[in-house]
Design a protein that fits this description.
The chain has 19 helices and 18 strands. α3 runs parallel beside α4, α4 crosses α5 and α12 crosses α13.
Length: 535
């Protein structure tokens, strides 16, 4: 029998549907071409499709970030880092709106959203999913992308146009992440560090290792990276990226210019904190309203439509000034767990050249080889002089080195500085260094240095705290540009973090103790409660 060449009813129906679908596809494509304007700037696009997020005029932060993100759509391999105020809508502009646009327009085939935890990253992804499912304007202009896609879970979605977006928490394994043949093309880090990074060096180091070792290696040379954060610590990820080559970084503060008349604000603060006044808040507000013109003079804030000057100053008083500096000003303020405030380490801390005349100059070595030393500790040389002006001038050399190198470096420093005295922690000298120093000094024709033996019987934390009054009085100066001085200051800022190194501050305290003893004359130390330094 010859098979019939006529199509069945079902086959005819399928053919008609295919024809209709192709026609609809052509109409949809034409419609998109007319309405989805890809030339729109990022803020203009966001206001068109997300007006419920963008009700207020943008701030300088929003304009700068949107401009950088728009340029990143045309120039690959961009790295953008923003430190901005908490509550300043960084995430709205740089995460929700930007990810959504890149996804529906298909400019980023594979997007990663990183958060402090997977749950927080998934929450950000949830904002994108909601718009894809519910935003009618978006669905009208991007029908090929909107609606539920093939994958639609809490932390992983694949849009109808094939774009994939995944959410990860800080520290999670992200190596090998792919969308078919695509490695991540856009990585958004949004407040990826926990608040314990403020006080824990261990946490900061762990986060940095993950960020540099995993995150920055996840893509290709064309991958765009965006980091959105507020200030946590000078060694937090965002702060480190400020000085990292290849990153375009910007810091934004809620109060750009402070009021000229801060004295009136201090009076206002006294009224606000008057616990004897049950209406203290109203009293302070009334004071402000009487003097508003003078109190506002000279002030400029980042986003007045969202937070005016009074709201910010009130926040500064009620949440704490250190917290305000960190969360709203983008500045790493002192934290309660650290011994000394950042103001102790302002520009006054530096000097450029040693004074010609010093009352005394000493060199001290903390070899960090004693019974309380930890693996990975530095050996620290501190070169300290007390000037005729009473200031204490300091340079330092910190490194991880074996005893032979420690002695060689010490010989070089000793020869260059010609100190009045050389001091070493007593036990380490007898056990490790005495013979080696004698040999190397003899090799260059110098007599044995016969160092002062510094006996440390008081706990280290107590000894280092003796530096506090000197810092408060602004008597200590460090040699500008010295890597060892910079590292010593960094360790002093972290003190007394149990996970941070303190070799530099420890050697500094010993050097100051030895210098004071020399000035007091051989015999008794300068203060009765201090350990004896013996020749």
């Amino acid at each position: 029998m010859v098979k019939s060449s006529r199509l069945s009813t079902m086959e005819l129906t399928r053919a008609m549907l295919r024809t209709m679908h192709a026609g609809l596809e052509r109409v949809t494509t034409a419609h998109v071409a007319q309405t989805a304007d890809r030339s729109l700037g990022q803020l203009e696009w966001s206001r068109r499709y997300l007006p419920h997020y963008f009700r207020k005029p943008p701030s300088d932060l929003h304009r700068w970030l949107a401009g950088e993100l728009h340029n990143a759509r045309k120039q690959r391999g961009r790295k953008i880092n923003v430190i901005g105020p908490r509550g300043g809508a960084k995430s709205t502009v740089g995460n929700t709106a930007y990810v959504l646009r890149c996804a529906v327009e298909g400019t980023e085939p594979y997007i990663l959203i990183l958060g402090r935890t997977e749950g927080m990253a998934a929450q950000q992804l949830g904002h994108v999913k909601r718009e894809l499912e519910e935003n009618s304007e978006l669905a009208r202009d991007y029908p090929e992308a909107c609606g539920r896609g093939a994958i639609w879970s809490e932390a992983n979605i694949r849009l109808r146009n094939g774009v994939q977006i995944q959410a990860f928490g800080a520290g999670q394994s992200i190596r090998g992440a792919r969308n078919a043949a695509d490695r991540p093309t856009l990585v958004i880090g949004d407040d990826i560090q926990e608040n314990d990074a403020i006080t824990s060096k261990l946490t900061r180091d762990r986060d940095w290792l993950w960020f540099t070792g995993s995150v920055l290696k996840i893509g290709t040379s064309d991958t765009n990276f965006v980091n959105l954060c507020n200030a946590l610590h000078r060694e937090a990820i965002g702060s480190r990226l400020l000085n990292m080559p290849g990153w375009q970084s910007q810091v934004f503060a809620s109060i750009i210019d402070w009021p000229v008349n801060m004295a009136l604000w201090e009076q206002w603060s006294d009224l606000l904190h008057n616990h004897d006044d049950q209406q203290a808040e109203a009293t302070a507000r009334a004071f402000y309203e009487r003097h508003a013109a003078v109190m506002e003079a000279g002030a400029r804030v980042l986003w007045p439509e969202w937070e005016d000057l009074y709201a910010l100053m009130f926040m500064r008083e009620t949440e704490g000034r250190s917290t305000f500096e960190r969360d709203k000003q983008g500045r790493v303020a002192s934290v309660e767990s650290n011994e000394w405030p950042d103001s102790y380490f302002d520009d006054h801390i530096w000097f450029d050249a040693w004074p010609e005349r010093l009352r005394v100059r000493v060199l001290v070595l903390d070899p960090s080889k004693g019974k309380d030393a930890r693996r990975g500790d530095y050996s620290a040389y501190v070169d300290l002089g007390i000037g005729q002006d009473g200031l204490i001038y300091v340079d330092a050399d910190l490194d991880r080195r074996p005893p032979s190198q420690m002695v060689a470096d010490g010989l070089a420093i000793y020869t260059r500085t010609k100190p009045d005295a050389f001091g070493v922690e007593a036990n380490a000298w007898q056990d490790l260094l005495c013979g080696e120093f004698g040999r190397q000094f003899a090799d260059v024709g110098l007599p044995d240095p016969e160092p002062y033996a510094i006996n440390n019987n008081t706990p280290k934390i107590v000894r280092i705290r003796r530096l506090g009054p000197l810092l408060a009085q602004r008597r200590i100066r460090f040699l500008r540009g010295s890597p060892g001085a910079l590292l010593t200051i960094s360790q002093m800022r972290d003190f007394p973090d149990q996970h941070a190194h303190d070799d530099g501050p420890d050697a500094l305290e010993m050097a100051y103790r030895l210098a004071c003893q020399l000035l007091a004359g051989d015999g008794e130390p300068a203060e009765d409660d201090r350990e004896v330094v013996t020749a």
